[in-house]
């Protein structure tokens, strides 16, 4: 187990290195100079004020989303309960967009955005909970309802954006999920929030593992199911909201990384929760690096520097492909 | 429903600035371009109304075809990647500033829609369990949506608002030229629809029974998808994917005619689609008076909850009427073979309208209702 953690940590370091080198404007040699304390002022500024916070935000957001997804899937006993298909992410997007449109929060006051996203995420989850018959629906039904709830929330977001068309430009990047232009301010806001709720989730790991086995087993083991599940869901919503406020609606990370994590680390959440955090960080960071590299390649062909591939587009495509594999490889299971 | 359709059409024609009272509409149309009201009505409002009707009809029919062919109440264009694909096909040249002749646009939309739908069906193995198809579709749609968003990120601010409105499905500022481009596609799609309707009602019985009756289920499914693509793509090319109409309209049709089969639901679903889009266009034009909201935003907002509610209440009645439904499918092909599939419900329209009002007033579905439907026919 420690070996797997070590391997993943090494992978994370490699991804982080690639991410630091991948951006435009600095050659790898210059980056190496800066890391060793050299380099001119511009290079140092780019590295410390742009690249480093971007890397950290990507790592933190990936970890938060993965943990949130694993907690959701365990608490709802539903392999398809990612934040995207339970209305949490669309709700958080809606909350943040509404708050910005109403002028309650600006992109200059990120704390209000986090709170609004959190409220929205809770509202989305509550809506699904009401619609799916208060938690006793079967997984497939819940997933279907989740997709529908997400569609409704997406429609609402669209309405808000229509009323405030000025926001559109900044919001579109954020609808797809991007780490472009994230600075220290975002990171300072993200890490305490993610650490707090991540720690809470880890404390809940034991009860959650029981919940994964089913309500009856959990009850027999002496767990009061209802409060434990409510707390777990709260954790998941808070983690998702934090990540969404930081990087936007990053697609499919919360749905598929937990499956990867469980496959690697087993179903004991005390181990697989930190594992999921690590896997999520690696996936988002790697995807971001790949996005940066790939947006450098076609740059001469298209018109110059305008083209940047947001990381969310890459994770959505990768996630969709992986989801297809998952659905195809389990023919006996009726989702 | 006829009342609803007429009322919303009248609203669409008369409300707005300048307000043209309903009794003067005929005069205004006859005046043509000699008066202001005449110009507004003939050049702006009538084409818009026609477009709403046509778009709704196409989307409603396509929704029913998909739902019946995949035997899945949730198989709607939005969830199968068909709509997103078509939208991607249209938006891509807009963003990349390629200038293309207008005639090519529907082709691009068709290409995109076929790509999206085909990808979903391929990935789902041509329709296994309904929710597997649905989830695969959601995944494909999300991937296409991501591609679309990447395009939007690349676009500049002015283009962006244009594309955004288009993506929601807006009917504003469409003229007769836009509608004229639709006719060739409709000429292809309508006969195909009439031909495929009987097959659809056989597909309802399940793959094995359908094969026993001589229908090749896989091919029929592909054909249904192709028809849906041909129906959706031109509409999407003109006014964007008006969201969730393909979901709501078939459910409305089923709710009001629970005992009918696919052959009878098809025209009803098309008519409900037209009604939904026309009704949605009225608040779209007037709610935030000087600014127009896209009609698609309203259908997206109201269509999903309404459709889910209908689906849930319909699901309860389905067990009770499964027997009559099977009998109905045997009647179905005969009706279509006489070439009068479109005409039958309209002939009985006043009768149907009365029954619907009773139904809306809270009449529960009971096993006795199917006999009423038989009487109408």
From TrEMBL, chain A:
The record ties this protein, via InterPro entries, to:
ABC_BtuC-like, ABC_transptr_permease_BtuC
Molecular function GO labels = transmembrane transporter activity
- What species does this protein belong to? Streptomyces collinus
Its GO CC terms? Answer: plasma membrane
**Annotated compartments:** Cell membrane
**A Pfam family in this protein?**
FecCD
Q: Which family does it belong to?
A: Belongs to the binding-protein-dependent transport system permease family. FecCD subfamily.
Keywords (alphabetical) are:
Cell membrane, Membrane, Transmembrane, Transmembrane helix, Transport
Gene3D superfamilies on file: ABC transporter involved in vitamin B12 uptake, BtuC
Q: Biological process GO terms, please?
A: siderophore-iron import into cell
What residue intervals traverse the membrane?
Answer: 55-73, 85-105, 111-131, 143-163, 190-211, 231-257, 307-327
The beginning of the lineage is: Bacteria, Bacillati, Actinomycetota, Actinomycetes, Kitasatosporales
Q: How does it sit in the membrane?
A: Multi-pass membrane protein
The source's superkingdom equals Bacteria
Q: What is the protein named?
A: Iron complex transport system permease protein
Automatic annotation (TrEMBL), chain B:
Q: Mind listing the GO molecular function terms for this protein?
A: transmembrane transporter activity
* Entry keyword set: Cell membrane, Membrane, Transmembrane, Transmembrane helix, Transport
GO cellular component terms? plasma membrane
Transmembrane spans: 49-67, 79-100, 106-126, 133-155, 182-202, 222-247
InterPro entries to which the protein is assigned, alphabetical = ABC_BtuC-like (IPR037294), ABC_transptr_permease_BtuC (IPR000522)
Its annotated compartments are: Cell membrane
- Compositional bias (Basic and acidic residues): 343-358
Q: Does the keyword Transmembrane apply?
A: yes
Name the family the entry cites.
Answer: Belongs to the binding-protein-dependent transport system permease family. FecCD subfamily.
The name this protein goes by in its record: Iron complex transport system permease protein
């Amino acid at each position: 187990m420690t070996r797997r953690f070590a391997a993943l940590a090494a992978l994370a370091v490699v991804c982080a290195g690639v991410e630091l080198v991948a951006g435009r404007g600095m050659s790898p040699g210059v980056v190496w100079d800066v890391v060793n304390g050299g380099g001119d002022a511009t290079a140092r500024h780019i590295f410390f004020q742009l690249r480093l916070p971007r890397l950290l935000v990507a790592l933190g957001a990936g970890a938060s989303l993965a943990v949130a997804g694993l907690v959701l899937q365990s608490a709802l006993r539903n392999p398809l309960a990612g934040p995207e298909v339970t209305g949490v992410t669309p709700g958080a997007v809606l909350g943040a967009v509404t708050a910005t449109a109403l002028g309650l929060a600006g992109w200059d006051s990120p704390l209000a955005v986090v709170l609004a996203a959190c409220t929205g995420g809770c509202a989305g989850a509550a809506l699904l909970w009401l619609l799916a018959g208060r938690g006793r629906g079967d997984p497939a039904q819940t997933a279907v309802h989740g997709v529908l709830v997400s569609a409704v929330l997406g429609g609402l977001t669209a309405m808000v954006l229509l009323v405030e068309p000025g926001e559109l430009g900044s919001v579109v990047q954020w609808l797809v999920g991007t780490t472009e232009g994230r600075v220290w301010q975002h990171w300072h806001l993200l890490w305490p929030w993610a650490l707090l709720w991540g720690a809470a989730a880890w404390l809940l790991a034991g009860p959650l593992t029981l919940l994964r086995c089913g309500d009856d087993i959990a009850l027999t083991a002496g767990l009061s199911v209802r409060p434990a599940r409510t707390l777990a869901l709260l954790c998941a919503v808070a983690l998702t909201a934090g990540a969404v406020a930081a990087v936007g609606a990053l697609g499919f990370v919360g749905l598929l990384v937990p499956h990867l994590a469980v496959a690697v680390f087993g179903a004991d959440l005390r181990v697989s929760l930190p594992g999921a955090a690590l896997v999520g960080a690696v996936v988002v960071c790697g995807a971001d690096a790949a996005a940066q590299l790939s947006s450098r390649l076609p740059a001469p062909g298209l018109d110059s520097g305008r083209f940047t591939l947001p990381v969310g587009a890459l994770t959505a495509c990768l996630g969709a492909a992986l989801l297809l594999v998952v659905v195809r490889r389990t023919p006996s299971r009726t989702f | 429903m006829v009342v609803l359709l007429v009322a919303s059409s009248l609203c669409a024609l008369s409300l707005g600035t300048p307000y043209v009272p309903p009794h003067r509409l005929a005069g205004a149309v006859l005046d043509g371009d000699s008066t202001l009201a005449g110009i507004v009505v003939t050049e702006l409002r009538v084409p818009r109304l026609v477009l709403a009707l046509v778009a709704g009809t196409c989307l409603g029919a396509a929704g029913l075809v998909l739902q019946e062919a995949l035997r899945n109440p949730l198989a709607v264009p939005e969830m199968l990647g068909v709509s997103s694909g078509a939208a991607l096909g249209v938006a891509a040249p807009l963003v990349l500033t390629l200038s293309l002749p207008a005639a090519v646009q529907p082709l691009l939309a068709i290409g995109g829609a076929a790509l999206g739908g085909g990808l979903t069906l391929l990935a789902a193995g041509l329709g296994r369990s309904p929710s597997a198809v649905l989830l695969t579709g959601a995944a494909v749609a999300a991937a296409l949506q991501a591609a679309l968003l990447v395009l939007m990120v690349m676009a500049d601010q002015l283009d962006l608002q244009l594309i955004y409105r288009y993506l929601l499905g807006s009917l504003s500022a469409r003229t007769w030229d836009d509608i004229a481009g639709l006719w060739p596609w409709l000429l292809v799609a309508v006969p195909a629809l009439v031909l495929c309707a009987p097959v659809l009602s056989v597909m309802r019985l399940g793959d094995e029974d359908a094969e026993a009756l001589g229908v090749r289920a896989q091919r029929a499914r592909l054909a249904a998808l192709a028809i849906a693509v041909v129906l959706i793509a031109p509409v999407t090319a003109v006014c964007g994917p008006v969201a969730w109409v393909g979901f709501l309209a078939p459910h409305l049709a089923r709710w009001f005619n629970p005992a009918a089969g696919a052959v009878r639901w098809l025209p009803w679903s098309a008519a409900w689609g037209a009604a939904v889009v026309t009704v949605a266009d009225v608040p779209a034009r007037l709610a935030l008076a000087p600014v127009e909201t896209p009609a698609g935003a309203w259908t997206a907002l109201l269509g999903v909850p309404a459709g889910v509610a209908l689906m849930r209440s319909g699901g309860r009645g389905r067990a009770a009427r499964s027997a009559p439904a099977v009998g109905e499918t045997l009647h179905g092909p005969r009706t279509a073979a006489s070439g009068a599939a479109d005409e039958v419900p309209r002939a009985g329209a006043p009768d149907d309208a009365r029954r619907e009002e009773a139904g809306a007033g809270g009449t529960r579905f009971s096993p006795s209702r199917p006999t009423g439907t038989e009487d109408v026919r």
